[in-house]
Amino acid sequence: MGNTLVALWYGDCTLAVLEKFRAELELIATRNPSGIYVLNVISEETGMPDNAARKYLGEQFATMRGRIKAMAVVLEKRGIMGTLSRTILNTVATIARRPFEMSIVGDRSEGASWVALRASGNAGLLLQAITGLARQAPAPRAAETR
């Protein structure tokens, strides 16, 4: 599944982190001109993006129009922070005019299954990628599944 990017987010959602993520998206999109799929896992520890980061996210969504086929976002945040995160993601996607199919879910298995169905892939491989990333130091990480 070299057409799928899996990212596990910890810590603050800064412009520097978003730029690194964008570079990973660009790399995998270049390798897969017919389109890519993304599985983002936003951990409980991930901070809320500030105004500059939200603006950058909107621009990133818009520039990936036609290149990202679908994205699942697993929000592991609960309660008010989960609601706020969900609202921010939906607002950014709406402002970017929904450039790709997106699902916001609360469970890693559900997110992996949703992406795998669209990417004609294996949800188990996506879950393995998340597990591998989680074993690394708690910092934003991205890994291409193979």
Structure write-up:
The chain is an alpha/beta fold. It has one domain (4-144). It is 49% helix and 21% strand. It is built from 5 helices and 5 strands. It has a 5-stranded mixed β-sheet, sandwiched between helices. Strand 2 (36-42), helix 2 (51-63) and strand 3 form a beta-alpha-beta unit. Helix 2 (51-63) packs across helix 3 (79-95) and helix 4 (108-119) packs across helix 5 (123-135). The longest helix has 17 residues, at 15-31. The N and C termini lie close together (5 Å). Mean pLDDT is 82; it is low at 137-146.
Strands of the biggest beta sheet: in what spatial order?
4-3-2-1-5
Category by helix and strand content: alpha/beta
Taking pLDDT < 50 over at least 5 consecutive residues as the criterion, the unreliable ranges are 137-146
Give the N-terminus to C-terminus distance in angstroms: 5 Å
Describe, in short, the structure shown.
The chain has five helices and five strands, in the order E-H-E-H-E-H-E-H-H-E. The chain is of the alpha/beta class. Helix 3 links the parallel strand 3 (68-75) and strand 4.
